[in-house]
Structure formats: structure tokens, C-alpha cells
From TrEMBL:
It is an enzyme of class 1 (oxidoreductase). Residues 593-790 form the Transketolase-like pyrimidine-binding domain. The lineage of its organism: Bacteria, Pseudomonadati, Pseudomonadota, Betaproteobacteria, Neisseriales. This is oxoglutarate dehydrogenase (succinyl-transferring). InterPro entries: 2-oxogl_dehyd_N, 2oxoglutarate_DH_E1, DH_E1, KGD_C_sf, ODO-1/KGD_C, THDP-binding, Transketolase-like_Pyr-bd. CDD domains: TPP_E1_OGDC_like. It comes from the Bacteria. It comes from Chitinimonas lacunae. Its cofactor is thiamine diphosphate. Its EC number is 1.2.4.2. Keywords: Oxidoreductase, Thiamine pyrophosphate. Gene3D superfamilies: 3.40.50.12470, 3.40.50.970, Multifunctional 2-oxoglutarate metabolism enzyme, C-terminal domain, TPP helical domain. The keyword Oxidoreductase applies. One of its GO terms (molecular function) is oxoglutarate dehydrogenase (succinyl-transferring) activity.
């Protein structure tokens, strides 16, 4: 039957695409194809190895193409046809096995410590091929090279391509074009570099510089931490190749993020930092005049480096010891630079991230950063990742304790990034994969990963003794000559230089280090680049800089009309229709302005003035509490991109750009991204909004290490705004507190601004003030959820057209100052609870003052307000947070500075608690009543 079928079917008729499509149909539903084809495909599935999970169906599909090329041979017997077909399919499966699993037998470990685990699929015998088949000719399928070759040659080509000093992982990629590109790139050259003499000399010079610098520092500054690169010196050759190659293809800026390992080497030998400056840092000095400063292996740097394509600006980001947290910061900075250039594809700005092996897979920041990489609001056209894989991590050299995956790079498979493993002892192979990574990124605008398998010659830092934890590994390392020696010997063997010339490179570099200079000038000192960031206008300014943040009534009405105009035949949800109708009335002055409208007016007016606005959060388009409605959805269209309308993008032809993003569910990566973006975009209002304020807990590292301390440590200015919903409404421990106390604890040196507005107009003015003032500090807004729809907190139009942000708001009921015996001071929504309680009880001798800005604390404004109450003997701070939380302990001394002698400072609020809020509504109400009673009851 099979012989008859094959001789009369389309199998040998040149219709391979038809057969492939039929096979896809068979895989989806075997009953949907004709019986004769179903029998044939069933037999293919039963061939040895076909059911193995590691082997994809691509070889079987490829067999159709190859068999379709063969002429119909009716004279062949069915047995010989079947045997020939089985052998051919077996060869194609062997090729596929090497593509999928070849990296497991690649020569990647410079220390050669571990025996390679058997991979049966890489053995011809596994697929039914024997020694007798080695001389036979077979079709090579899609294997790049001769179409037909002997099995022996095919195996040799596969081993050279996939099991040499380069190991490739790319068959997990589902995009055929990307997968075939990697195949073509490496199979065409069999993963073997072919650099000319000049390039080889440059590589040797780079790794000589890397090794010599480390050894120089090791002897000059004995015992000082530097997190040496020794064992991974090929990184410097790779970075040089990347910078030069990127410049050659038109990249204008490169933003680099890395942790400690090899950082000083990259600073000097890649970015061109003068060794003399580095030596000063080792000696406890610094060229930067900063309030606190930071250790030398956290410091950033930037320079302009000449390349064949022109100068490229290279920046190394400042970073803390929290390792991978700098990664989304770098990507965010790259996105801002691309935005400034109008670089929508990422061709002009390239982010590069250097990782440690354990940190790369161990820290969740990378999962979040990868998850951001292909999204619309965070994509940068791909990032080049380099893992400095010293096979130890911190102290764990046994991978059973370091991860649950085979490779430390397996996390990158979540976004189908190609992964190029390479032996760091072969610097030419390292440069080869670097070139391929750059080409892949520039072509497909997607992340790509290089796994630089090396070792760590010394301990985690130079004070550690690694023999305590890795004795056998370090016995191997002690015998290793180093990548520079191996490569120099290789070039000497090739006759490209002499041993004396190799030694002279070391001597020349050491002599330059003795002078504190470079061997050669690698940076440009007089190059003036376009799109540079200038924070000069924001230095030395004060938070109280007078700024007009008002709009005229005519401007409000004009903006209101634009913000509520929708396209024809756009079907609004009834609720949204009512919101827009109300906003028209607000703009006309017929209704009080609510918080959603106040925010929207602030954004619109800034956009028209040329300030871009970027707003992100987990539900920012609509607003978590359904108050913003920045994105409108057509109720009759399914697709988001076709059925969405953003009024803030349609104000005028020359307005600044507006972007609102419903972000991924990862606060840490997103907030770090927005910090990096804001740091590189001083003329944009960049806002991160927490779905609930305490969700910021998941990004505490970003808050501690970047947002609140980046300026004092590194001199990095940032105008990032954080909106944190906050307020006690009986919603339990996780949806009440934004942890105000944590932010206040981090306040010093006017590093941030913390406000808790209680009126819609306050929100309007503080957002406009953030951009219109020549002052760039992070702004943290604790926004009440309840007040978004609370009538008394809405503002008349006059508060938009006059005044400004008020750090302190006096009592609106204006009690008789001569009768007031107690002044309540509070922040946020609790003001309305206090006001209502006073009104209900008919109290006339208690005044209520709001502190809307908690830091920088408005001492003068509050003192002036309190001084009005000339007979008051009690000043009471009232908060709805527990006593050990909220603002009380952080601002008590500030309140005392505003009081007159003999006045008593009292407290009213919830009792101290281990939890941010109670979980029972009844208990919440009881606590509220208790502290309101306390606030309204004068001391006897």
C-alpha cells in the first residue's frame, strides 16, 4: 500500500509546501486528513526518536522538502524506498538534535571541571545510523553548506558549529525568521571566527589591558575591594568590539548597566576613565563634590568614544549593591533617550546589561525587565545582555543550590531571546558571538543574551579566601595561565607576533598606569553631542521657588472642550458619557472640579506648554478607582488599538507627547524603569501610580537606593512623581496605608517632596508646579481614594484660576481666633472626619489646620498659621494611621519648632499596631470614633 501511495501521491511531486501544511493539519487533528496521508504520517511518528520531547517536528517537515526534490523512481522496491527514507529522516533528526541540544556538549568551561553528561540524541546510533552509513551521501536539509554530503562530514560540521567554544540555544524561538537567521549566521561559518591580523592584535591589546589593570591594582592597593575581572578578561575585548560595532551601524548612544564584577575595568578600559581618577578613589578621595558619595565600584561614568561610524556616547549607570536592580533603570533611561531623539525603533540608542550568573536567574528584577521588553510602553528595541558567568555566584559553586534550571540564562527563554554561550578563554569566539548578538538585536529589535563562561580568580571580593568553600575549583584556577597568556601563545604560534612583543604590551600599559594615564587616547574630549541632558537650570534652586500654576477661565473652558470631544460614531459607556458631560460643566464653571478633572487639566495644560507626560501603573488608563478615564473605549469595537481614544493626545498639532500605560504586575521593575526614564527626561512629567499605595512595598529597593538617595550618592537629579493611594476606609491591612512613615524616614537634605493633598485644586497645582518650577526632585503624592468622589473635597473654578499649591491650609470655617483653645493639625482625608465631627458637636473653640506638604516641611507657613490662635494652649496632631506609623514620630520635632512657649503638643489617632490597619469594619469605625472623640475633647 505504501509503495502504491508513494508512487501516486504528491510526495515526489515537488509540492513540499502543500505536504507541510497537510502535516500541520494532521498534528492538529489527525482525522481531518485523508486516510492514506494519515497512515504515512503515523509511520513517520513511529520512527526512532520521533516521540522524544527534545526533538521538534521540523526535521520531519524538512524531510518532505528533501524528498520532494528527488525524482520519482517507480522501479525502487517498497523496502528500499522505506529504508532510504528512514535513513534520510534520521539524518535530518540528527541535525535537529544538534541544533537543540548541541550546547550541552560544547567546550564552554575554561576549567574543564565537570564531565559532560551524556546526550544520546547527539549520537548517530540513537537515530538508527551506523558506522557503515558514514560514507553515504545524504541531503543536508536546511543545514547551511553543501546540499548533499557524507554523514561523516555532516557530523563534523555539526560538532564544529554547535559543540566547539560556542554553544547556541535558539530553537526555542517560534519566529521562523529569527531562528533561521541564527542558523544561517553560525552554520555558514561553523561558529569559527576569521579575524584579520589587525583585529587579533586589538583583541590581545584589550585583554592585556584587562589583566594588567587588575594585577596592578592588586599590588598597589592590597586588600581593597575591587571585585576583580580576572578570569573573565575577554569581556573587555567583547565590550570594545560591541562599542566599535555599534558605532559602525549608526548607534549614537549606549547605556550600560552592571554590578560590581569587572566594573572598574570597564570604567578604565572601555569608557576611558583616567586611571589617576580611579587611584584617587582607592585613596579615599573623589573628584565629585557630593554630600555623601558612594564606593568606587558603584560609580557611573560617561564618555564619547570614536568609532568607524562616528562618535558614540557611552554611559555607565550608577548602581547600588542590589545587583540587578539597575537593569530596568538602564532600560528606562534608554527609552527616554530614544524618545528625545524620536528613535522609535531603537536604532540610535542601545541598552547593554552586564549580569552575574547567580544574580541573572536568581533575582526577580530580571523577570520583570524581560517582561517589559516587548511591551508598547517599555520596549527599547532590544537589549544586549552579557552574563559574566564565573560559575560560582557568590559562594555557591554547586548549581543544585544556585538554580533549578540547566543554564543560568534559561530565564531569557521566556521572551524567546537567543542565547549564545561562549568559552571566555577564546576571546575571538567571544567577539564573534558579540558581533552576532549586535546584528541580531539591530535586525530584530529584540533582546539577545551572551553567556560568557569564565571563572573568578579571587574571592567574591579581594578579602575573601575562596579555598574555604571551593577548594577543588580553586586548585584548578591556580593552575590556569589566564586568557591573555593562552591567546598570546596562540598568536605567537600563528606567527603574528613574538613573545617579546606580547610582553611589551604589558610593560607599556603598566608604564602608563604609573603615570595615571592611558596607553592611548580612547575618548573624545571636545565632542559636543546633540540631545545631551542638561540639569544646570535645576541646580541650586529652592522648593518654594515662586511659580504661577494657574490657568485663566478661558483656558480651562477651551481645554475642557478638547478633553471631552470624541470622534463621531464613537460609542461611549454610559458611565463615561456622564463623566465627560460633568467635565464640560466643570470647565464652564457650573460644577465644582473633581480630582479626575483636576488631574486631566494639569496634564493637558502641560502638554500644550511643551512638557511631555508619561503616566504608568497597573490600571492607569481608566484609573484604579475609575476616576481618570484618560483612555476611552468604544463599546462597539473589540480591538483595543482600534476602539480606544485618548483625548490628551488630540489637543493640538504641536503639543508634547502623552503616554498612559497599563503596566505589567511588577512594581519593582516598572518603578525602576520610570526612575531611569525620568532621570533622563527632565522636561517630562513622569508618573508612576501604585494600584494601592502599599504596593510600593514591592519596589522598596528602588525607593531606598535610587529615588531618595540617588542625588546625595551620585549627584543624579530626578523629577519622578509617585502617586500612592492612601487612606483608612475600612479596607483592611493591604489597601489602606501607603506607608507614609517609610518615606518620611528617608527624608533629608531636601531630597524628595511628600505631599498629602486634601482638595482637587491642590492636585492640579502640585502637578503643574512639578514641571513649571526650575526644581527637579522626586514628588511623592499620597492621594486619598475616598476624596476622589467626595463632594466637599472638590474645588471651585476660582481655585484653578487663582492661587497655587498651598503647603498649609488654614481653617476654612474661620473660627474666632480669640476663642480657640486647641488647634488640630492634620494631613489628608482625616480633615473631613474632623470637620464633620466638630460641626456635629457644635464646637467653636477648636480650629483645624492642614499640612499638605509634609516634606520639605513648611515650617514658616505652619508657624504663621498657628500664631493666629493667640490663646490656644494645645496643639494636637491628629492622624488616622496607628501611632507607630503615619507622620507622627517623623514630624513631631517639626511641630514643636512651630509652637509657642508653654503650648502642649498632643496626639490623637489609632493606637500602635503591628498591622497597617484593622481588617474588621466594626473595629475600624470604633477606632475612628475613639480618636475623633479624643480630638474633640479639651483637656481639663
Amino acid at each position: 500500500m505504501m509503495q502504491t501511495f508513494m508512487s501516486h501521491s504528491y510526495l515526489f511531486g515537488g509540492n513540499a509546501p502543500f505536504i507541510e501544511e497537510l502535516y500541520e493539519q494532521y498534528l492538529a487533528d489527525a482525522q481531518s486528513v485523508p486516510q492514506e496521508w494519515r497512515d504515512y504520517f503515523d509511520k513517520l511518528q513511529q520512527l526512532p526518536g520521533s516521540a522524544d520531547r527534545d526533538i521538534p517536528r521540523a526535521p520531519i517537515e524538512q524531510s518532505f522538502i528533501q524528498l520532494a526534490k528527488q525524482p520519482r523512481l517507480a522501479t525502487r522496491s517498497a523496502a528500499s524506498e522505506s529504508a532510504s527514507m528512514k535513513k534520510q529522516v534520521a539524518v535530518l533528526k540528527l541535525i535537529s538534535a544538534y541544533r537543540v541540544l548541541g550546547s550541552r556538549h560544547a567546550n564552554l568551561d575554561p576549567l574543564k571541571r565537570m564531565d559532560l553528561n551524556p546526550v544520546p540524541e547527539l549520537e548517530p546510533s540513537y537515530h538508527g545510523l551506523t558506522d557503515a552509513d558514514m560514507a553515504l551521501q545524504f541531503d543536508c536539509g536546511s543545514l547551511v553548506g553543501p546540499e548533499r554530503d557524507s554523514l561523516a562530514n555532516i557530523v563534523a560540521r555539526l560538532k564544529q558549529t554547535y559543540c566547539s567554544n560556542v554553544g547556541l540555544e535558539y530553537m526555542h524561538i517560534t519566529q521562523s525568521e529569527q531562528k533561521h537567521w541564527v542558523q544561517q549566521r553560525f552554520e555558514s561559518i561553523r561558529s569559527t571566527p576569521s579575524f584579520d591580523q589587525a583585529k587579533k592584535a586589538r583583541i590581545l591589546k584589550q585583554i592585556t589591558a584587562a589583566e594588567t589593570l587588575e594585577r596592578y591594582l592588586h599590588t598597589k592597593y592590597v586588600g581593597q575591594k575591587r571585585f576583580s575581572l580576572e578570569g573573565g578578561e575577554s569581556l573587555i575585548a567583547a565590550m570594545d568590539h560591541l562599542v566599535q560595532g555599534a558605532g559602525a551601524v549608526g548607534v549614537q548612544e549606549m547605556v550600560i548597566g552592571m554590578a560590581h564584577r569587572g566594573r572598574l575595568n570597564v570604567l578604565v578600559n572601555t569608557l576611558g576613565k583616567r586611571p589617576a581618577e580611579l587611584f584617587s578613589e582607592f585613596e579615599g578621595k573623589s573628584t565629585m563634590d557630593l554630600p555623601s558619595g558612594d564606593v568606587k565600584y558603584h560609580m557611573g561614568f560617561s564618555s564619547d568614544i570614536p568609532t568607524p561610524g562616528g562618535p558614540i556616547h557611552v554611559s555607565l549607570a550608577f548602581n547600588p549593591s542590589h545587583l540587578e536592580i539597575v537593569n530596568p533603570v538602564v532600560v528606562g533611561s534608554a527609552r527616554a533617550r530614544q524618545q528625545r531623539r524620536g528613535d522609535r525603533t531603537g536604532d540610535q540608542v542601545l541598552p547593554v546589561l552586564l549580569h552575574g550568573d547567580a544574580a541573572f536567574i536568581g533575582l526577580g528584577t530580571n523577570q520583570g525587565t524581560f517582561n517589559l521588553s516587548q511591551t508598547r510602553g517599555y520596549g527599547v528595541g532590544g537589549t544586549v545582555h552579557i552574563v559574566i558567568n564565573n560559575q560560582i555566584g557568590f559562594t555557591t559553586s554547586d548549581t543544585r543550590d544556585a538554580r533549578s534550571t540547566l543554564y543560568c540564562t534559561d530565564i531569557a527563554k521566556m521572551i524567546e531571546a537567543p542565547i549564545f554561550h561562549v568559552n571566555a578563554d577564546d576571546p575571538e569566539a567571544v567577539c564573534l558571538v558579540m558581533q552576532a548578538a549586535l546584528e541580531f538585536r539591530m535586525k530584530f529589535h529584540k533582546d539577545v543574551v551572551i553567556d560568557l563562561v569564565c571563572f573568578r580568580k579571587l574571592g567574591h571580593n579581594e578579602g575573601d579566601d575562596p579555598m574555604l568553600t571551593q577548594p577543588m575549583m580553586y586548585k584548578k584556577i591556580a593552575k590556569h595561565p589566564g586568557a591573555r597568556k593562552l591567546y598570546a601563545d596562540r598568536l605567537i604560534g600563528e606567527g603574528l607576533l613574538s613573545a617579546a612583543e606580547a610582553d611589551e604590551l604589558i610593560k607599556a600599559y603598566r608604564a602608563a598606569l604609573d603615570k595615571g594615564e592611558h596607553v592611548e587616547q580612547t575618548t573624545l574630549t571636545d565632542f559636543k553631542r546633540s540631545f545631551a541632558i542638561d540639569y544646570g537650570a535645576f541646580k541650586g534652586t529652592h522648593w518654594a521657588h515662586p511659580t504661577d500654576t494657574t490657568l485663566s477661565a478661558g483656558e480651562v473652558q477651551r481645554l475642557g472642550e478638547k478633553l471631552t470631544r470624541i470622534p463621531e460614531e464613537f460609542k461611549l459607556h454610559p458611565t463615561v458619557d456622564k463623566v465627560l458631560a460633568a467635565r464640560r460643566e466643570m470647565a464652564a464653571g457650573n460644577q465644582a472640579i473633581d480630582w479626575g478633572m483636576a488631574e486631566t487639566l494639569a496634564y493637558g495644560s502641560l502638554l500644550e506648554k511643551g512638557y511631555g507626560v508619561r503616566l504608568s501603573g497597573e490600571d492607569s488608563g481608566r484609573g484604579t478607582f475609575s476616576h481618570r478615564h484618560a483612555v476611552l473605549h468604544d463599546q462597539n469595537r473589540e480591538r483595543w488599538d482600534q476602539g480606544a481614544y485618548v483625548p490628551l493626545r488630540h489637543l493640538s498639532d504641536n503639543q508634547a507627547h502623552f503616554l498612559v500605560i497599563d503596566s505589567i504586575l511588577n512594581e519593582e521593575a516598572v518603578l525602576a524603569f520610570e526612575y531611569g526614564y525620568s532621570s533622563s527626561a527632565p522636561d517630562e512629567l513622569v508618573i508612576w501610580e501604585a494600584q494601592f499605595g502599599d504596593f510600593g512595598n514591592g519596589a522598596q529597593v528602588v525607593i531606598d537606593q535610587f529615588i531618595t538617595s540617588g542625588e546625595t550618592k551620585w549627584g543624579r537629579y530626578c523629577g519622578l512623581t509617585m502617586i500612592l493611594p492612601h487612606g483608612y476606609d475600612g479596607q483592611g491591612p493591604e489597601h489602606s496605608s501607603a506607608r507614609l512613615e517609610r518615606y518620611l524616614q528617608l527624608c533629608a537634605e531636601h531630597n524628595v517632596q511628600i505631599v498629602m493633598p486634601s482638595e482637587a485644586a491642590q492636585m492640579f497645582h502640585v502637578l503643574r508646579r512639578q514641571m513649571l518650577r526650575p526644581y527637579r526632585k522626586p514628588l511623592i503624592i499620597l492621594m486619598s481614594k475616598r476624596l476622589l468622589r467626595y463632594k466637599d473635597s472638590m474645588s471651585p473654578l476660582e481655585q484653578i484660576t487663582s492661587g497655587g499649591f498651598r503647603p498649609v491650609i488654614g481653617d476654612p470655617d474661620q473660627p474666632d481666633v480669640k476663642k480657640v483653645k486647641r488647634v488640630l493639625v492634620c494631613s489628608g482625608q482625616v480633615f473631613y472626619d474632623l470637620q464633620n465631627a466638630r460641626k456635629e458637636r457644635g464646637i467653636k473653640d477648636i480650629a483645624i489646620v492642614r499640612v499638605e506638604q509634609l516634606y520639605p516641611f513648611p515650617t514658616e507657613e505652619l508657624k504663621a498659621e498657628l500664631d493666629k490662635y493667640i490663646v490656644a494652649r494645645e496643639i494636637m496632631w491628629v492622624q488616622e494611621e496607628p501611632k507607630n506609623q503615619g507622620a507622627w514620630h517623623q514630624i513631631r520635632h517639626r511641630l514643636e519648632n512651630c509652637m509657642r512657649p508653654k503650648q502642649a503638643l498632643l496626639y490623637a489617632g489609632r493606637p500602635s499596631s503591628a498591622s497597617p490597619a484593622v481588617g474588621y469594619m466594626s473595629k475600624h469605625v470604633a477606632q475612628l470614633k475613639a480618636f475623633l472623640d479624643e480630638a474633640m475633647t479639651l483637656s481639663k
